[in-house]
Amino acid sequence: MFGLDFPPINEVIRWRDAFGNLNKIGMIAVLASGIAILIFLIASRYNANEAPKGVRNLAEMLVEFIEENIVMQTIGKDGLGWTPFLLSLFIFIYLCNLPGIIPILQMPATGRMAIPLFLSVIVWVVYNAVGIKHQGFIGYFKGIMFPPGVPKPIYLLLTPIELVSTIIVRPFSLAIRLFANMLAGHMLLVTFALLSAAMFEAQTKKFLLVPMGILPMGMLIFLTVFEVLVGFLQAYIFTILTAVYIGGARHPEH
Amino acid sequence: MEALVQVSRLVSELNAADAKAANAAIGAGFAYGLAAIGPGVGIGFVVGKAIEAMARQPESAGMVRTTMFLGIAFTEALALIGFVVFILLGL
Fold it and tell me: How confident is the model at residue A19, as a pLDDT?
C-alpha cells in the first residue's frame, strides 16, 4: 500500500555475526549470565549484619520473590532447597527477555528456539530425575500412568494421554510458550516500527501520510511498555511451571 | 465469502509456484485467526473467574493470582502453537 515490504524473517531475527560465530543472541546470553553473576557477587560482599542497601537490597528482593511467590506456593516448605535453581532460571530468562526493548540490542535472546529449548531440556531432566529419586523408577511411572481415583476402564484412555503429555508434550510446550511469546512481541515491534518509518519517509501524499505516522508510532510506544510486562510474565511463568513440575514429581497424588 | 471465491479464482490463474505461495499465505492467515478464537475465550473465562474470586475473598488474592497465571499459561499455549504454524507457513 505504501510501498511497504516486510523483510524476510532471517533479516528480522538475525544480526551480523560480530566475531566468528558469536552472533547477537549468543552475545546477549553471555551478557545476561554475566550480569546475573555480577549482581550476586557484589551483593555477597556487603556486610550481612547491617541493614541491606544498594545491590544487596535488589538481590534479597529477588530471592524473597522466588521463595514467597514461587517455591512456597507450589512445592511447599521442604522445597526451599530448589530456590537457587529457580532463581538462576528466572534471572537468566528475564535478562534474556529484556534486550527485546533495549535500544541497539532490540532482540530478545529467547526469541530464537535454541535457548528456550535448551532450558526446557534442563527442566525435563531435572523433574524426571527428582521424580525417580523420590518415588523410585516404578513408582514414578506408575504415578504418571495410573493416577488414583479414576474408574478402571478410563485408564485405557487416560494412560497413553498422561504418559505422552508428561514425558513429551511438557518440555515442548514449555519451550514453545516462551519462544513464541517473545518472537511474537518482537515481530509486533518490527511491524509497527517499519510502518511508522515508511509513513514518515513517504514520497507521495506527504501532507496526509506524515502526520498519520504518529499513530503507529504511538502504538509502538505502547507495545514497548507492554513488552516490559510480557518479558517479566514469561520468565515468571516458565519458573513457576518448573516449580509445579518439580513439586508434582516430589509429592505423588494420593 | 464472495471475496474468498474471488481470491481462489485469482489463485487458480497463477502458475504453480505462485499459487503454492498464495495458498500458504491464505492458510497462514486462517491458521492464526482460527487458533486465536478458543484461547481468547478461554483466557477471558480464566481471568474473569479469577477476578470474581479475588473480589469475593481479597485475602486469598495471592494464591488465586498464581493459579490464574498457570491457567493462562496452559490456555495460551494453543494460540502460540497457532502463531508458530503461522510463521512456518507464511514466511
Answer: 67
Q: Grade residue A93 by pLDDT with cuts at 50, 70 and 90.
A: very high
Q: Quick: pLDDT tens for A120-146.
A: 999 999 999 999 999 888 988 888 888
| B4 belongs to a structural domain | no
> Residue A92: which of A43, A31, A181 has the closest Cα?
A31
Is there a contact between A177 and B80 if contact means CB atoms under 8 Å apart? yes
User: Is B9 a member of any domain?
Assistant: no
How far is residue A9's CA from residue A179's CA, in Å, rounded to a whole number?
Answer: 15
Q: Which domain holds residue B91?
A: 36-91
Boundaries of every domain in chain A = 9-250
CA distance B63 to A25: 36
Number of domains in chain B: 1
Q: Is the pLDDT of residue A50 over 50?
A: yes
- What CATH number does residue B84 fall under? 1.20.20.10
Chain B residue with minimal CA distance to A69?
B66
Nearest residue on chain B to A8, alpha-carbon basis: B91
Output A15-18 pairs: Cβ under 8 A, ≥24 positions apart. A15/A107
Interface test with A, best of B75, B83, B88 (most A CBs within 10 A): B83
How many Å from the N-terminal Cα to the C-terminal Cα in chain B?
A: 25
Tell me how close the Cα of B26 comes to any Cα of chain A, in angstroms: 17
- Whole-angstrom Cα distance, residue A122 to residue A138? 22
Rounded to 5°, the CA angle B67-B71-B76 comes to: 145
